[in-house]
Structure formats: structure tokens, C-alpha cells
């Protein structure tokens, strides 16, 4: 197989926005992780300046099974997009673990958003399958990807409640069955829906204990949107995985852990328990889910797309 470079458009043609395939990737990668056929090394973090949100991340992983791939995702995160650039840039390098040969290089900024939204979709479908009212905080690429995912995976969705600090629109238009409601504050937006996706780069919490009302699911995708007091009020605190990153991650839950206010033993369930074992909260429980982002998903998604692209004749050859 010729080593390839896949652009954003190549990935879309290869099935990046096939949400059912994405959910299958999530499930299979977690299953492989459980039996030792997938593995993640600790991420390498490189500060890019005085703003703690400006960092470079190196994330290596391998995933066996049908993926049979190992690789490294290198990402730069900036609090604000530089002039003429983007706030997040990312590349993923993939090798075939069966042959030892390189599969190629993927422009993975979009793919990171896709795998993050796919996990959010999988968790929400498991915990709140009949979703009708959704809140999205933020209006950047991650927020818009979560909207695309929700429209594809939740046919009963009727209302999208939206807040963003910038005032930017989340979407130019929505399907006729869905009403978009805009809010002046994040709290009111969250209180209007059953499920909330927080997709911002907020360095300080936006949400307090009042959002942890009975039956609510708050799924944190972004930086530090949820206060310690709000997390304390959740009936069930869940996350994709608890790992060494709890010592360095700026996510609200892990900051709370390092502050001595949240012991690991209080985690009610991780993504594997929810998606593989069928864990469910008590009726009317409020649930907080912290989405850190597992690099096994990056490698799994990239491997599927790389092989699809090769079969379809997509991508730019990098070697003869």
C-alpha cells in the first residue's frame, strides 16, 4: 500500500462523517483497550507561551483488531486563532502494525472533532436515547461538529438551545423539525434542555450547581466550563477514562482532583462501563461526563479512513 496524505476533503470522501461507522470505531477501540489489544502512552505536552491554553500535544497510541495501526497525533492548541491561521492544527502519522509499513499522514484537525463528537454521540445515545432538547455552548468548529452529529444521530431532536460568548451563529439554518433558540447566558441555555454539550475554550467556569438538576446530562468537551461546586452536585460523575492525564489535564474534573476535591474512587463509570457494560444512572439522576479525548480513537479513525481512501483511490501519494 502506497503511503498517502489525506486532506480534509479526502477524509470526508473516505467516510469521516459516517457517524454510524464512527460509533462502531469507538466501541471497537474500547473493546480492544479492555483486552490489552490497544494501548496509549502518556501524552507529551509542550507549552507555547504564557497563556496556559496555548500548548502542543504529542499523543501516541496503537490499536489492534481490524485497525492494526500505531501512530502519533501532533496537535497545537491556541486560545485564539493567529492572523491567517487556525486555533487548532493537527497531524496524525499512521503505521500498519501488521506489515510495519507507513500508511500515511492525515490532516487531523477535523478528524479530532469528529472522534470527539462521535464519543459524545455514543454516550448520549446510551444515556439519553430519546433526546429532544439539546444545549450547545460555543460556536467554534467543535461546537458545529457536535451539532452535525446530533442532527444525524438523534431523529427525535426538536430544539437546540445555544449560547456563545462571541455571539457567532452556530448554524446558518437547521432542518425544519429543529428550532434554534439563542441565549444571553450559558446557565439559561443549559436549563432549557435535557443534555448540554460544552464546547468552549473558557479558562474559568461558566456553569454552577444550578445546572445539575434531576435528569440532566452535562457533557464537558471544552476547557474549564464547569465549576467544582457543580461537579460536586452531580449525582453521578463519569468520564471517558481516568489515567495519568489526571495529573496534568486542564479539564475541570482533573483540576478538581488536583485541588483535593475529587478522589478517583468517586467516578461512577467510564466510557467502557457505559458503552460496553451497560452502566446506567439511577432514574432522574444528574450526570456529569468529562470528555478528555483518548488517542486510541484518533488512531482507530485514522486507520479506517486511510484504508478506505486507498481502496477508493483518494489521497496524495507520499512515496512510490
From TrEMBL:
Signal peptide: none
InterPro entries, A to Z: NAD(P)-bd_dom_sf, ODC_Mu_crystall, ODC_N
GO cellular component assignments: cytoplasm
Superkingdom per UniProt: Bacteria
PANTHER family in the record: KETIMINE REDUCTASE MU-CRYSTALLIN
Name of the protein in question: Ornithine cyclodeaminase
Lineage: Bacteria, Pseudomonadati, Pseudomonadota, Alphaproteobacteria, Rhodobacterales
Amino acid at each position: 500500500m502506497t503511503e498517502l496524505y489525506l486532506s480534509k476533503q479526502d477524509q470526508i470522501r473516505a467516510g469521516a462523517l459516517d457517524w454510524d461507522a464512527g460509533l462502531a470505531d469507538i466501541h471497537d477501540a474500547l473493546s480492544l483497550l479492555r483486552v490489552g489489544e490497544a494501548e496509549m502512552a502518556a501524552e507529551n505536552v509542550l507549552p507555547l507561551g504564557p497563556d496556559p491554553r496555548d500548548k502542543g500535544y504529542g499523543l501516541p497510541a496503537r490499536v489492534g483488531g481490524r485497525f492494526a495501526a500505531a501512530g502519533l497525533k501532533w496537535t497545537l492548541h491556541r486560545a485564539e486563532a493567529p492572523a491567517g491561521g487556525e486555533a487548532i492544527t493537527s497531524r496524525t502519522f499512521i503505521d500498519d502494525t501488521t506489515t510495519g509499513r507507513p500508511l500515511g499522514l492525515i490532516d487531523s484537525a477535523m478528524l479530532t472533532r469528529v472522534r470527539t463528537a462521535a464519543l459524545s454521540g455514543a454516550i448520549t445515545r446510551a444515556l439519553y436515547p430519546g433526546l429532544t432538547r439539546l444545549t450547545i455552548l460555543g460556536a467554534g468548529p467543535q461546537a458545529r461538529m457536535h451539532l452535525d452529529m446530533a442532527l444525524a444521530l438523534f431523529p427525535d431532536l426538536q430544539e437546540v438551545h445555544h449560547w456563545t460568548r462571541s455571539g457567532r451563529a452556530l448554524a446558518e439554518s437547521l432542518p425544519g423539525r429543529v428550532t434554534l433558540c439563542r441565549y444571553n447566558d450559558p446557565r439559561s441555555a443549559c436549563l432549557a434542555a435535557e443534555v448540554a454539550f460544552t464546547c468552549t475554550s473558557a479558562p474559568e467556569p461558566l456553569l454552577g450547581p444550578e445546572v445539575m438538576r434531576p435528569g440532566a446530562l452535562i457533557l464537558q468537551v471544552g476547557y474549564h466550563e464547569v465549576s467544582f461546586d457543580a461537579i460536586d452536585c452531580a449525582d453521578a460523575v463519569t468520564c471517558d477514562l481516568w489515567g495519568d492525564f489526571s495529573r496534568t489535564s486542564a479539564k475541570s474534573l482533573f483540576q478538581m482532583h488536583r485541588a483535593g476535591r475529587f478522589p478517583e474512587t468517586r467516578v461512577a463509570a467510564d466510557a467502557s462501563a457505559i458503552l460496553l457494560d451497560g452502566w446506567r444512572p439511577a432514574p432522574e439522576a444528574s450526570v456529569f461526563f468529562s470528555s478528555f479525548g483518548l488517542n486510541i480513537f484518533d488512531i482507530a479513525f485514522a486507520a479506517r479512513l486511510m484504508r478506505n481512501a486507498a481502496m477508493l483511490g483518494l489521497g496524495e501519494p507520499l512515496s512510490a
